[in-house]
Amino acid sequence: MAMAERFGARWLPFRFVLAVALLVLVTVADRAVMMRAGATPIGINYGQIADNLPSPARVSWLLRSMQVSKVKLYDADPYVLGAFLDTGVEFVVGIGNENVSAMVDPAAARAWIQRHVQPFLPATRITCITVGNEVFKGNDTELKANLLPAMQSVYQALAALGLQGRVNVTTAHSLDIMGSSFPPSAGAFRADVVPYMQPILSFLSMARSPFLINCYPYFAYKADPGNVPLEYVLFQPNAGVTDTNTRLNYDNMLYAQVDSVYAAIQALGHADIDVKISETGWPSRGDPDEAGATPEYAGTYTGNLLRRIEMKQGTPLRPSVPIDVYVFALFNENLKPGPASERNYGLFYPDGTPVYNVGLRGYLPPMDYSRGTRKAVPLLALILIAVAAITLSLS
Question: Would you please indicate which residues are annotated as catalytic (active-site) residues?
Answer without folding.
Answer: 134, 279
